[in-house]
């Protein structure tokens, strides 16, 4: 199981990048084109203005300098509490970020990572033309405003686009933080229209509470906190707002990468596919769209965040790594309303993942999407793959001594990319109930265009 993201070694951002990215403005003084933004994502950092806004809010609420020793100690204390709550057993977990120093600990420990995380996802949606350049966004369970802040930053970095943003949040102190941070960070912008957040529990919202023709409906790190309702009830809650989506509207679900929440996200996704939605990403729709793998654990890993200055202060003492959160790992699902259309290319000579158990001990050809980073070791490179039909977890295994010109494309793969494997040897891992596909030197692996 994944541990909460942190790095024992405090990173120092290169001075050249520091001057370019961490200006005193809301975002860099010059905007980036989309190719330069990809470079930014290889060494992401939150803007100085956002960091200043967070610290100003903490000082305003406490009546003390943000780095007062007592304030720092209390923030560290609540970071520990929230991490302890997070790692409790399923069913006993109840996490709160809605009051006092719990809000401060969220702002300093979680917000920077979630801020960059959402920029990644939003950039993918815009650059991939999943949503238009001018879009209506609704943030369900907004907390102190991560989605709104990240959206404002990305639009300004790109130098184009327009967003109209609605937010719903039940906790008054989160709304107070939202209003302060968004006002301080964004100022007056012609490329944004940000409505005042609505104080309401998202489980009680009705379709009339939301705008119509939504381009992007976001549930980021909120479904995991609805511990009192079942998977089916969560899916029904989301489905309630289907009619608010525009014809090409996108539903974005994001959850932490650890095992329990990640696998539950896939369960919610399966329920939604039974009720009028279809998956766009990351789950592939190559050989079908009825994956039923009950242990599907898949998540995206990005380049780590460069530590903000306040994280370095929090991490300055003994066991400081406990207060440093720079790893960006998340599970997500991009869905839209199902139009009933499914085009399956001609893959007649490829065996679907759902049928692999019939071919144990034989060599077969498969085509599938890479659904993990390399989770192996120095001796074996292991990647999770899926073609949209899996009933059990499927892994391709490339022994290091079998790397060749034929198969080394796999080692350069990115999450979600589709590859052909010709052929692989099928085995069953009885201990875990998974299917292992062994790659030899002769196996030809090619990226699907």
Keywords:
OB fold (Dihydrolipoamide Acetyltransferase, E2P); Rossmann fold; alpha/beta; disordered N terminus; 10 helices; 449 residues; globular; 2 domains; nine-stranded mixed beta sheet; five-stranded mixed barrel
Describe what you observe in this structure.
The protein has ten helices and 15 strands. It has helices at 15-21, 34-40, 48-62, 69-86, 100-127, 146-158, 172-186, 231-239, 259-273, 309-314, and strands at residues 134-140, 162-169, 192-194, 198-199, 214-220, 245-256, 277-281, 300-302, 328-337, 363-370, 380-386, 394-399, 418-429, 434-438, 444-447. Strands 1, 2, 3, 4, 5, 6, 7, 8 and 9 form a nine-stranded mixed β-sheet that branches. It has a five-stranded mixed barrel with strand order 10-11-12-14-13. The chain is 30% helix and 22% strand. It starts with 14 loop residues before the first helix and ends with a strand. By secondary structure, it is of the alpha/beta class. The chain has two domains: 15-257 and 299-337, Rossmann fold (3-Layer(aba) Sandwich), CATH 3.40.50.150; 353-447, OB fold (Dihydrolipoamide Acetyltransferase, E2P) (Beta Barrel). Strand 2 (162-169), helix 7 (172-186) and strand 3 form a beta-alpha-beta unit.
Order of helices and strands: HHHHHEHEHEEEHEHEEHEEEEEEE
Rg over CA atoms: 22 Å
Q: Considering the protein shown, what is the CATH homologous superfamily of the largest domain?
A: Vaccinia Virus protein VP39
Principal-axes shape call: globular
Cα separation of the termini:
33 Å
| Uncertain spans | 1-30
CATH architecture of the largest domain: 3-Layer(aba) Sandwich
Helix and strand composition category: alpha/beta
Please report the total strand number as a whole number: 15
Continuous helix count: 10
Integer average pLDDT:
88
Largest sheet: 9 strands, mixed
% residues in beta strands: 15-25%
